[in-house]
Amino acid sequence: MHTIIPAKDMDLCFSGGQGVIKISYADLVKKLGTPQDEDGCSKTQVNWYMKLITKDGKEFFFSVYDWKQRKPIEKVTKFNVGGFDKELLVHLSEYLGVKIDSSGY
User: Fold this and answer.
1) Contacts of 2 by beta carbon, 8 Å cutoff, 6+ apart
2) Which residues pair with 51 in a beta bridge?
3) What is d(CA 86, CA 56) in angstroms, rounded to the nearest whole number?
4) Closest CA to 28 of 72, 69, 76
5) With 90 as the cut, is the pLDDT of residue 39 above it?
6) Which of 14, 36, 57, 65 is 20 to 30 Å apart from 80, CA to CA?
7) How do residues 64-92 score in pLDDT, each as one tens digit?
8) Of 35, 85, 91, nearest to 65 (Cα)?
């Protein structure tokens, strides 16, 4: 089983978009906990900054955020995933139990 722990926003400096996940805000909170940044910036309302540690000890820093979603956060069902390595998506998809679309990245 993978382990996910909170990270700092500074851990994600120079990261880039890796994919899009279709999941409810409530399900993300169940899996990742409360977002670290609920004020967001002008283009997001919430942000999670996380580190995923695989069964074999590989570490992946990633973020999840609601890029340009202007509806109430409880109604958002599409979130972006940021990080440094597409391999993250395989492990995060397993952890969350949903597919992550990376076709636009």
Assistant:
1) 52, 53, 54, 55, 91, 94, 95
2) 5, 61
3) 17
4) 76
5) no
6) 57
7) 999 988 899 999 999 999 999 999 999 99
8) 35
